[in-house]
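Pilot study result, target chain (408 residues):
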Amino acid sequence: MTTRETGRDEWVSAGLIVGAVLAGMAAMAAQRGEAAAASTLVITAAPGTPAAPPPVARASAPAAPSAQTTRPKVDLVFALDTTGSMSGLIEGAKMKIWSIASFVARAQPTPDVRVGLVAYRDIGDAYVTRVYDLDANLDRVYQRLLSLSAEGGGDTPEHVARALHEAVHDMSWSPAANNAVRLIYLVGDAPPHLDYQDGYDYVKAARAAAARGIQIHAIRCGDDPDTATYWRKIASIGHGEFLTIDQSGGMRERRTPFDEELARLHDALSDTVVAYGAKGSATHAALAAAAAAPASVKASRAGFLSAKKDETETLADDLVGGVASGRVDLAKVPAADLPRALAELAPEARKEKVAEKTRARAAVLDQIAKASAARDAYLKKSPDKPTGFDAEVENTLRKAGASAGLRF
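Predicted structure:
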């Protein structure tokens, strides 16, 4: 039995509406709105299949860019072989997703970054593919990565064609534009099955990506010659690069003298987050996953949150961020939606408590920014340069970003 799990995440768009009211008098009003288009998802799980994080409704396709200057878009989709031989790569990706995200966030001009995942195996395994749409919420992406484990496989070929097809066609890609970077990373150690008559074709998928301006980089883990043959072809058709890394992924934990301090600041930042309302449970889950991470992962996540503090759901959509931005009127939030400790306070005391959290957050973010800059400088000077999966992602991002006007 096979399982397909498709995550469709919410895409938020905002607009400014200006209208004349009466002759001789002008008034301007700004109005923000959110819309979500959700599709019905049916998941058929094989008996005993481990539970994965609940997928989110797929976002509506991003609106076409306006005449005004828009921020650069970076869309990254990782199609990862999750069969048994790929355990090193999978575990390494969990360690490095925040450092890759932080690398992108530091680009100039600051881009909007989204990450999608396609975990693939083969027919007869617990699932053939698990698809998670492009998502700007990197905490959610991190939790999805944590849910992945390397199991199954056995015969050498895997269902690469289906994974590549879904990476191209089942993601809410940003519209093609001069300042958009749209990349697929196909990462595996086995060639595609060529004997399935199920309509999936890796050549057609690669050509479709090229036609849409989506670049495919094919990263081979290990030294299998058949995989190299097909990976080269896919990369050539997809106008990307064929790259080879160690079977384990070649990723190392790069420790610095600043990690422990950044980990402490990371946890202090988490203490300023006030989860509430319908998103409260998701926020708590994100905080729990982050709290359990190693110091180097916390350091990278802290750097990312500092660079994108006004945009990440963890900081912008909690109660403190909502009140500080003016999007949330604390006086109108029902007590039932608040944490008990806050709900039990009188209105003025409640207001002061949130203000206290706001001041604490600003101070911690300032400290994180300084410590992150010192950490980045240390890593740039360090002779211990990354050589594995994360290094190849950063190198290809530099090249793709240059054509979109991004400086890393």
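One observation from the pilot: The domain at 4-9+48-55+70-252+387-403 is CATH 3.40.50.410 (Rossmann fold). A full batch analysis is planned for the follow-on phase.
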